[in-house]
Fold these 3 entries.
Entry 1:
Amino acid sequence: MQDNPQAQSGALYIVATPIGNLEDITLRSLRILREVDLIAAEDTRHTRKLLSACSIATRLISLHEHNEKKKSAFLIGQLASGLNVAYVSDAGTPGISDPGQSLVEAAHAAGIRVVPVPGPCAAVAALGVSGFSSDSFLFYGFLPAKPAAKERELANLKACRQTLIFYEAPGRFADTLTRMKQTLGDREIVVGREMTKVHEEIRRARISEFLENRILGAEKGEFVIVVRAEEAPKCVATDEDIEEALKRLFAAEDCSVRDAADQVSRQTGASRKRVYSVAVKLRT
């Protein structure tokens, strides 16, 4: 069933908007923005350009990181009175490293229906063209600006075995890559700059190559950095280590060979087949 703001009272629509190229706006997003009673925007000046280009005249108010809590209370009142409201950030999906979270939380608390209107997201777009594993990934967003805090956060992520995705602002790109190399190692990364815009660049190389060869044409614009997951270290557990772990497990609880192999495999990093073989010998 299609949603219809005219027939659904008091709904909050979280609408994704283009991250650059206006052609990326969806037909559904355009319809919702035309039909709601009110659009709340991170920057009304920015959103007005989009609405003008799409011939949309819906009333606009601002809701950004500095007034979000105050304006959220106002918007919840409007929603409770039966008005339909759309929220848009400057680009991409609201709430993803953008304002919107407080408004959505307040809507849920008030029993207001919150409707996603999906579309562009820079993190997902960059991951999709990276060629890195997307089975499991961690989106961090913007790292802290202060060097010590940035290094601390990167150190916390060093052991992460997932593809990592960061946003970075102009002026901090080189420093961030330098600290990534020092902390995470010289990993392969994909960097998207000005994605979907006229001067879009997407490059893939090791961190050191970006730093040494200035691969990107310019260090201006907004960046998405996708970091390849580091492979898990090879298991160094010996058969004696596995045997000792199995003996402790069998002594502590009554479990099957299969369950024991599963548990010890996770503990030691050894393959389940290898652990199972040792467990069978212990049980015979």
Entry 2:
Amino acid sequence: MLAPGHQALGLSSGLIVLTLLPRWGLVPDAPLEAVLFMLFVLFGSLLPDIDTPRSKLGYHFWRGLIFVLLIAFGCYLFAPDYLDQYRDELKVFVMLMAPLLVMVKSHRKMTHSLMFIGVLILYHAVITRFFEVPPYYFFGFITGVVSHLLGDYLTKRGIPVFYPIFKKHFRFIVTFKTGSSFEKGLVWSLSIWNIWFVVTQVF
């Protein structure tokens, strides 16, 4: 699946999970936190493809990371009070980047497996042990990652679900080719549904 497909599927998954959060006792306190939740979803929906420089996230990863660090450093020097308002979010972002440095190997390997999700869950447990981070941010992040794996599971290439134990790629019974007309139609359909869902919830 290409980046637009992963983003559309991620947004759809995030909107569904966002409506379920109150049932789990996890409710964002402000509209900004709901927006940040969806940003974590979008980031997670592109994250597994960081293992290839041909992807949007992989291509811009190092440039973007340096840019964010420069902004954070600038705020630290010239606007420390503003930086304090988002200190927890910055901690989460930086700490979530660390495991990727040892997992990036080749496309559709470690980052497209159940082990990757397991490592993220374990990493989240470590973060919440030492920092007071609202759990719904992680729900958004992992929702995006799972939606990405689901999207690639529907493609003809499939994903190595049990990597590195088994390197075989698994795929759904019905599949489509990455970048095909079917995928483009799916992206349009999901985009229309996302807009409809947001409009009906707001109005």
Entry 3:
Amino acid sequence: MKLKRGHWLILLFTLAYVLIYSIYYISIKNYEFLWYILVLLFFFALIFFTLERSKFDYLILWGLSIWGLLHMSGGGLIVNGNVLYNFQIIHLFDIGDTFVLKFDQLVHVFGFFVTALVAFHLIQGQIKTKPNWTLVYILSALISMGLGAVNEIVEFIATVSITEVNVGGYYNTALDLIANAIGAFLAIFVMKKRK
């Protein structure tokens, strides 16, 4: 596969932060995020080795890479004595054992915004006739939300497999799913420009 200069930039950027965070998480014995690095590397390899076929553009590739960086930073960087994921952007309201709006929720919005664009790109590549675009947009958003549910399953596996995790409880999971939906449906505005 022949990579363009833009692909090499994304590749080097992604490999650099994965290496840095891998060393960091090993040094602090953060096994939860070592698990996430393995998941990230799996998807990274899947995207890289299918790039010629998928033809993901730079917007999608940078979005995926930045999402990975935000996720690695969220679990590893300490701000005010707590992980960045728990950092309060602005306090809108309390709910259960957590609150809105924190860094974690913004990462979910961003990540599943990008995921909806990925789904749209893949669906769009399979369309042979004039589709009902509204249905394609909604389907792309729903695929993103489904993948968001898979993400919560991965977090659950980490919770039951590793003794010390910072995933959060029921309210956190519910807010993550809501943030995923917001990101997925916000992506429709970009999809409309990209059809």
